[in-house]
Fold this sequence. Notes:
- This protein is α/β, with parallel strands linked by helices.
- It is built from 17 helices and 14 strands.
- The strands form 3 sheets. Strands 1-11-10-9-12-13 form a 6-stranded parallel β-sheet, with helices on both faces. A 5-stranded parallel β-sheet has the order 6-5-4-7-8, with helices on both faces.
- Strand 7 (208-210), helix 9 (215-224) and strand 8 form a beta-alpha-beta unit.
- Helix 2 packs across helix 9 (215-224) and helix 4 (69-78) crosses helix 7 (170-179).
- The longest helix is centred in the first third of the chain and has 19 residues, at 81-99.
Amino acid sequence: MKTIKLDEKAVKNVLNDLLKRSPNQYTEYEKTVNDIIQNVRENGDSALFSYTEQFDHFAVTADNIIVTGEEIQKAYDALDPEFVAVMRRSAENIRRFHEKQLRNSWMDIREDGSILGQRFTAIERAGVYVPGGKAAYPSSVLMNVIPAKVAGVSEIIMTTPPSKDGSVNPGTLVAADIAGVDTIYKVGGAQAIAAMAFGTESVPKVYKITGPGNIFVALAKRAVYGHVSIDSIAGPSEILVIADGSANPRYVAADLLSQAEHDELASAILITTSKELAENVESEIGGFLQTLSRSEIIGKSLDRYGYILLADDLDQAAECANAIASEHLEILTKDPFDTMTKIKNAGAIFLGEYSSEPLGDYFAGPNHILPTNGTARFFSSLCVDDFVKKSSIISYSYDALRRDHKDIELFAEKEGLTAHANSIKVRFEE
């Protein structure tokens, strides 16, 4: 990790370095992705099946594209029962948290007879993309599907790439069943995103696509946005820890490594007011790297995107954290709740030494689908609102419109839209 004295120039350099990891930088893959999308859009199942055989080496057909109930049962049989029980407990925590986000439609009925309001309705069909192979994360299945179920989405489908023998990761299947997925399709990659965005003979068109994936999946989601809604274009994982001299360096080091192990582009940053803590954290990291299974990946991640930033005080530390707008922010200070009041930009905030980031990844309940690459300045975590549409309601009585009609007509005429003005005027003709 690089240790740097914090100042304005240092923050700018760190931000420039982190932005190199954005999916927006991988423009060399755009043509390939766009060609795949266009082919699936035009040729449906024929293109989808061809790409699945080409990339996943499985001869998918209309008869075997859907995961069967028997396959789901085999997945349950293949998993440790205690792991299944843990997934169920996690799902319940996630469900409970997201139920707090539900909002009710409302009406404001005024004395003049006008009625204004807002109606909340869930989208009809959502699609969840789940990576396959070694990158299979059952926790992400729960995080994507449960908010949609809570929101009241009528149908949830899932796509995930199959193995060569047509099987799907058992953890993925069990998580999907626990969360309430209606249908699982054995297709992956940009072709699966295209199938959900436009529909094929086998895969129905959805109205929202969520879920992580590789660069091809990310670029495909960006390309189909507008034809469907998406959650976000996710970048590599990030963690930022704000700590003072009261923090336990072993905890800080362990938490930084929890995200650095995701991949070589992951970012782990410590901002601290204590040089002694910084040195002790570096020492602890060295010890952990001797024992952790993904130490090679962690080492490359820390070499490229690992920073220890030395701040003069917690105000400066918070200012820097707001500029970085990290996906995960841990606050390990003497009074973390006070420090939190200085934070404006973060995907998820973890307070205190017993609230390490994996708590949010797996079990606490808040969603772990979070904004990355500084987008926490204007994006939020995946939530129930992502699966709900809001319709405005307007109803005016004669008396209410009579009071306002001249104002409306004037506004329309000043914009040169005489037909707009006329649609009001005709209601008050002699």
